[in-house]
Specification:
The protein is mostly helical. Helices cover 39% and strands 7% of the residues. The chain has a two-stranded parallel sheet with strand order 1-2. The structure holds a DNA duplex.
Length: 123
DNA sequence: TCCTTGACCATTA
DNA sequence: ATAATGGCCAAGG
């Protein structure tokens, strides 16, 4: 058979590997996954691949939009499912959105801890 | 073959 | 904060 869906292409394999690598309790954006998969600028392809069959065994719930919001319509079946799965691994979702500074995979901890404005450093 | 759609994103206003 | 725009590119009609 030659049904070469995106999930069986090289890109698909790389994307799935990147998603599988997201640590439990963390989240990453579609764009970030694309970048890690060696496909910068192809966030939409990530969404497509996750939509295809085979994503069931992946931690797809850890993939969010760049602003931390869930990519499904609020209240939809997939939306509720994603919220449930994330909550199950300790990721807090508030109003369909996750705080990337707190749960983001690539968050820079140093910058986060020192985020408080220091006196004498610009306003 | 052209056109539309989409689990997206960065920039600009 | 929201809205419009252009880029991205694989599927499906």
């Amino acid at each position: 058979m030659k049904s070469a869906q995106s999930t069986s292409t090289q890109a698909g394999v790389a994307i799935r590997a990147a998603v599988a690598a997201i640590p439990r309790g963390c989240v990453a954006s579609y764009g970030e996954i694309a970048r890690r998969a060696g496909l910068p600028g192809r966030a939409r392809l990530v969404g497509r691949v996750l939509g295809e069959a085979g994503a069931a065994s992946l931690p797809w719930q850890r993939v969010l939009r760049a602003d931390g919001r869930i990519a499904f319509p609020v209240g939809s079946r997939a939306f509720r499912e994603q919220v449930r799965l994330l909550a199950a691994e300790g990721v807090r979702v508030h109003r369909g959105r996750v705080d990337l500074a707190a749960f983001g995979w690539d968050r820079d901890l140093d910058r986060l801890l020192w985020a408080a404005p220091r006196p004498g450093r610009r306003s």
